[in-house]
Amino acid sequence: MNISIIPASHAPARKSRATLAKVAAGAGTGFGWLMCTLATGAVAAFAALVLGVRPSWLLLLLALPLTVALKFCGCLYGRWSAPVAAASVLLAGFYAACLVAIARIAAATGFPFGLAFRTGGIALTLQVAKLGLNALSVLVYAGAAALAAALAARLASSGDRP
Fold first, then answer.
1. From 22's CA, which of 55, 60, 65, 99 has a CA 20 to 30 Å away?
2. Closest to 130 in 3D by CA, of 105, 106, 94
3. CB-based contacts of 131: which residues, under 8 Å, 6+ apart?
4. How many domains does the chain have?
5. Could you read off the pLDDT tens digit of each residue along the chain, which spans 162 residues?
């Protein structure tokens, strides 16, 4: 009869490895969430500049692919899926609006993109981004966040079933 008993001296080492693995997984998930969110904002800003429309409309179109990408990255699970998806859509919208604002500053001043941001700074960028907001674009951002939250809740509930 061979019964293996874990010695008491190895139990804290296994617990610390498990904690380290959880921290590493959380950091990886957070990095994936941030990269998917910022990439969506950059795509929305680029398309808004090329098409000549506000980035809020493009973000409404990109809310569903962003939510599905977050689900594949492992960022959406459990009861936190809807708020995480809504926050990522809103952060992507903020990032897109700031990128479009920096592009407008660069076009007005004749500076390259990076120099326009360094010269104007974050305050000028936020002021120009705020000029592009109106009631309709705020409603579109809210609608995109609600759409992403609804899809994330649906994806999380279907993923939890056996």
1. 65
2. 94
3. 101
4. 1
5. 555 555 555 556 667 778 888 888 888 888 989 999 999 999 999 999 999 998 999 999 999 999 999 888 888 877 888 999 999 999 999 999 999 989 988 998 898 988 888 888 888 888 888 887 888 888 999 999 999 999 999 888 776 543
**Residue 5: how many CB atoms within 10 A of its CB?**
5
Residue ranges making up the domain that contains 68:
18-160
Instruction: Please state at what angle helix 11-51 crosses helix 55-73, rounded to 10 degrees.
Output: 160
Residue 20 CA to chain centroid, in angstroms? 25
CB 43 within 8 A of CB 62: yes
CA-based nearest residue to 88, from 71, 110, 100, 107: 71
Residue 91 within any structural domain of the chain: yes
Q: Are 141 and 67 in contact (CB under 8 A)?
A: no
The per-residue DSSP string of 93-105 comes to HHHHHHHHHHHHH
Does any domain span residue 71?
Answer: yes
